[in-house]
Design a protein that fits this description.
Blueprint lengths: L2 H22 L1 E6 L14 H10 L4 E3 L5 E3 L2 E8 L2 E6 L13 H10 L11 H4 L2 E6 L4 E6 L6 H5 L7 H4 L4 H5 L10 E5 L6 E5 L12 E6 L3 H10 L4 E3 L3 H8 L4 E16 L9 E2 L13 H9 L3 H8 L4 E3 L22 H10 L7 E7 L6 H15 L2 E7 L1 H9 L5 E6 L6 H8 L19 H10 L5 H18 L3 E14 L2 E3 L12 E3 L2
Parallel strand pairs: 1-10, 1-11, 15-16, 15-17
Antiparallel strand pairs: 2-3, 4-5, 5-7, 6-7, 8-9, 9-10, 11-18, 12-17, 12-18, 13-15, 14-18, 19-20
Helix pairs in contact: 10-12, 15-16, 16-17
Length: 523
């Protein structure tokens, strides 16, 4: 046997043994989408935040049910109404070995709300902060201009970055990997938009070690394609499993599944502000004064939606009908805010009372690749409103276009989704309060609903440190917004789903995050 042939045979033998070993330490995750940026402060989107949590850490983090737990801070407390104190973990180190200091925290909190061209700013979480002070080597105090009871919750979403590496870094530097120096359980390896995001385990991480040494997040936008990739063995775990595929995979001995109730409310935004709305006309197509400004019309639209049918037929049971802004048991929910009963006759009477017995024409907008069966949901709602007597049409868009157009207020009625964090107050602040860029409130109020009395309740609640009183103020604001004004139309809460090859487990989360650190090897 020639020397060359012996060398090739030896190489092949080594590959045979090394390949499976490497494969056993590689986790391949099929994601609906990749991050829009690696800059942890570029966009306050749950998907971006989830990716960031692998390389970076916040001061405080949330567990699978969104209860607060230590991260870079081992403890925290309210010193007084305007001061929060955090104790830093002395073992926390950046990937370059540097300790996490108060200077890093102060730099981060100043940067997070001031990233150029951010499509969804973190400023709403950092705006109350006036100063970050060092008490000693391990203790920092964060001063706020007004009482801010939810500050620890806000800071769960703000990843701490290194001042040394981030002071001159731009979003482009993070995207290129040059500034990806965090404290998290994984180190950045590579990423290009539309391509897999690759990370390797940080063996110096102070917390629990992830089960896998290397992880690849592979963007697979189509839900059917994600399922096919899992079945073919091209990926080990997928997220956002379609209802029909979830049933099939759950029944298979080859796969395991995990699911959790979600805190994400799917709802309809209604243009209750403009005198003429872009996609609302008379039945014949002529101009008409915007009927969505009338609370009776908004309530009639809600009454004409059969939520039980949406859940059972369109979502195949993979949702829960909603009447409040948060799921049952969430802080600030009102037990009396039940899903609006389907009442077509009552809706017709209410519409006639408002002066629209002959109905009108409107277009229902929404995404076609953002939420489970989102386009089918929009179609079903349009059909229900047709039975109400409206001329209802549908137009859906890919998520990028849909997000941009919704932010530009191009829609009259729009299917949207939002997760409060982790109190109902988070929904009231962003979706219900009048649009107010100075206060950083109403930032996602796409219907521009506005009511000064409800605004007052929200502003009072967000500055109330007493939990019981804050919960009651929250309930009062929610009742006024939903029961009296129909500021938006709650539809349902999603069920979060994952599927994986047999031999793996996943700790299902209410916040929809798909984390490599939540994946375990089955015993």
């Amino acid at each position: 046997m020639s020397r060359l042939r012996r060398a090739l045979l030896a190489a092949a033998t080594l590959a045979t043994f090394a390949g499976p070993a490497r494969a056993q330490d590689l986790l391949r995750i099929g994601m609906e989408s990749g991050p829009t940026s690696l800059d942890p402060h570029y966009a306050s989107l749950i998907t971006n935040i989830a990716f960031s949590r692998h390389v970076f850490q916040p001061l405080v983090q949330q567990d699978r049910r969104q209860a607060l737990q230590p991260a870079l801070a081992t403890s925290w407390r309210a010193v007084d109404d305007l001061t929060w104190e955090f104790t830093l973990d002395p073992a926390a180190r950046f990937h370059d070995g540097a300790r996490v200091t108060a200077d890093d925290v102060a730099f981060t909190l100043a940067r997070a709300g001031d990233v150029p061209n951010s499509p969804s700013s973190f400023r709403v979480y950092t705006r109350p902060i006036t100063a970050v002070e060092t008490v000693d080597d391990r203790t920092i105090r964060i001063r706020t201009r007004v009482p801010t009871p939810l500050l620890p919750n806000y800071l769960c979403l703000v990843m701490i970055v290194s001042k040394q590496h981030g002071e001159t870094a731009t979003t482009a530097d993070y995207n290129a990997g040059r500034a990806m120096i965090g404290t998290g359980p994984y180190r950045h390896v590579s990423w290009q938009p539309g391509s897999p995001l690759v990370m390797e385990r940080n063996d110096a991480f102070a917390g629990p070690a992830p089960a896998f040494a290397r992880v690849e997040f592979r963007p697979i936008a189509n839900a059917g394609a994600r399922t096919a990739a899992l079945e073919a063995g091209d990926v080990d775990l997928i997220e956002i499993v379609p209802p029909d595929q979830m049933k099939k995979l759950s029944a298979s001995a080859r796969f395991a599944t995990a699911e959790s109730p979600s805190n994400r409310l799917l709802f309809l935004t209604l243009d209750s502000d403009r005198e003429a709305s872009p996609h609302v006309t008379a039945r014949g197509g002529g101009p008409i004064a915007n009927p969505l400004r009338d609370p009776r019309v908004r309530r009639a639209l809600s009454m004409a939606i059969n939520r039980d049918a949406l859940v059972a037929r369109v979502l195949q049971g993979q949702a829960t009908a909603a009447g409040d802004l948060g799921p049952a048991g969430y802080f600030g929910t009102a037990p009396d805010l039940l899903p609006q009963p389907f009442d077509l006759d009552g809706a017709k009477k209410l519409l006639a009372e408002a002066g629209y017995s002959q109905g009108f024409a409107l277009q229902v907008n929404g995404p076609n690749d953002r939420f489970v069966n989102d386009e089918q949901v929009v179609q079903a709602i349009a059909q229900m409103w047709t039975r109400l007597g409206l001329v209802a049409t549908v137009e859906t868009r890919p998520r990028g276009v849909w997000l941009a157009e919704a932010a530009q207020l191009k829609y009259s009625v729009n299917l949207a989704g939002f997760s409060p964090n982790p109190e109902v107050l988070g929904m009231l602040e962003t979706q219900i309060h009048s649009w107010n860029p100075v206060l950083g409130l109403g930032t996602a109020n796409r219907g521009r609903f506005s009511n000064t009395d409800i605004d007052g309740l929200i502003q009072k609640a967000r500055q109330t440190m007493d939990d019981a009183l804050r919960a009651e103020l929250t309930r009062q604001a929610s009742r006024a917004a939903l029961r009296d004004q129909t500021a938006l139309i709650p539809l349902y809460f999603q069920v979060n789903t994952w599927a994986m090859r047999r031999g793996l487990g996943y700790e299902a989360r209410t916040d929809e995050m798909t984390l490599a650190t939540s994946v375990s090897r089955a015993p």
